[in-house]
Amino acid sequence: MREVQNVLEVKNLKKHFPIKGGVLKRTQGYVKAVDDISFAVKENETFSLVGESGCGKSTTGRAILRLHEPTEGEVLFKGDNLLDVGKRSFRLMRKDMQLIFQDPFSSLNPRMTVKKLLMEPLLTHKLATKKEAEQKAANMIEKVGLSKEQLDCYPHEFSGGQRQRISIARALIVNPKLVILDEAVSALDVSIQSQILNLLIKLQQEFHLTYIFISHDLNVVKHLSDRVGVMYLGQMMELATTDKLYENPLHPYTQALLSAIPSIDPKEKKERVILQGDVPDPSDPPTGCPFQLRCPMAHERCAEEKPRFIEKEEDHWVACHLYEE
Amino acid sequence: MKPLLNIENLSINYMTNKKDFNIVKDVNIKIDERMKYGIVGESGSGKSLTSLAIMNLLPEVLKIQEGSIELNTDSTKDLANISKKEMRKVRGREISMIFQEPMTALDPLYTIEYQLLEVLKIHKTYSKKEMYKIGVDMLKKVGIARPDQVMKDYPHQLSGGMRQRVMIAMALICQPKLLIADEPTTALDVTIQAQILDLMNELSDLHNTAILMITHDLGVILETCERVAVMYAGQIVEESTVEKIFEEPAHPYTKGLLSSIRSLGNKSEELYSIPGNVPTPDQYQELGCRFATRCPYAMDQCFNQEPLMYQVQDDHLSKCWLHVEEGRANERSSERTRS
After folding, report:
1. Nearest Cα residue to B262 out of B278, B273, B248
2. Which residues of A touch B (CB under 8 A)?
């Protein structure tokens, strides 16, 4: 039964980028951007991937859509393995999976009017005639809080928040099942950010969407998500429901990450776990647990053996030797 | 005692042959010695321009229209009205600045040693050996583990956090009286941000340096500053101690900003959001309050008369008409007790 509920299942996904060097451009090594991660996304939920820059969260999102062809693993979308599908038929499937990017300034073609931008996906996927597409564009633009009069404007005439609204309209116009939001609100100002988040929540309910929300902003993730996966150096460190993760973070990395968010309540003076050092070079990751070099709780075993990803309690997975029997 | 930095009625205009409009208007800021002062605002609020004006680094098209920027160190200088030669003596020695993007602020063609010691070479008269030693000590102080190695490195060999540490070392090496930090941690990850803020706090206490922190992140302000000015559309709308701003915000914009962040923690609620968009300078109203179009409390008066700065409490200023009108003011205080 469980299989039916899952819109998306990612199994042992790997994406290794070769490092080429020398005169002959031989492969000298690999950057393991995503290294063996698995998770499932249920229908109608918001699943978030968090982590610092370079942890592989965006690569995961792109690998799911095959914008980066995965090295290994399976991506099951409603039961079909996306990686087995030929390029042409995959293109047809892609309308069910849309991606919204961080920077609304570079993701919209400056030479197209909003109307053209919105009609383009419908016409490419041959989902509507030109007339129908025009009608749909007009409907969609009102759904995202802009007006029909703005259909003939060009992207540069809009502010950042409005452009992000257009990107959202463009992604949703083909009626997708799954939307991957890659840092979709990170470039926006605080007062605009909350407008867009409200819009995303409203549209999710209206269109029965499933979101994969990729972000480094832990406050936003807390507000939006049902479940959260924490990534570090291409690996999943912890995965739990939002409440469990924020109230009872198990992995030392998650604990440090949560304590590093600057508090906005003057009364709340929290114990800080300040991590030493930087994220290691992903082309030369440490042996054993990827976090062991910065971990305040590291012991000998962490350097020798990679911890397994275990379900510590219901719906709460963690990869850390502290929790292995 | 005179404050270390005293900005009075600073206005900055955008001026070309065709256009002339006001961007920053009537900014008043006083920073005492050793004080940690924050300016918070959204993009386009004029917070960075204010800091660039202090450093005399405004782009050609932007001109200081009015006001003074008084710096009181050994002598008193007006930075709004100073020769280039004089200013060169101030930069790096009395006031220094760190920027958001450490990769663009460091020159990729020179080693860290060259860039770090350049400031000393210009302002002080040490021998080469002494300078090198001061440089290494400074790198140690900013928490760099292998200072001798890093001195020989080029910027691209360092990580983002390390580069920002080098920037801080460069900024503090001449022991300036004031450090301006323009979004110093925005480009960094949260765990690195925590390290850098910690370091800045520690070093400013050690060297008795005042900090002017420019950021869009209220969390960073609470973490580092004592006083804060909230800027919106080129004006300071509220100014007080950090505690007062966070606990009893007076201006509708500050309130809105705080509510939208605070409701983030609350999943069941719809997020509070300020309607509308941040105006661009050509949309600023000639008359009236610049926030009026987005303000839930806006009255007729707000659209045709610019609000004055009111003292709402001791040491707490807010630029809003609400504070005059008795009825409204009471309503707000009852609202405060309810929450």
Report:
1. B273
2. 52-53, 159, 161-162, 189-195, 197-198, 201, 216, 218-220, 222-223, 242, 256-257, 259-266, 272, 274-275, 278-279
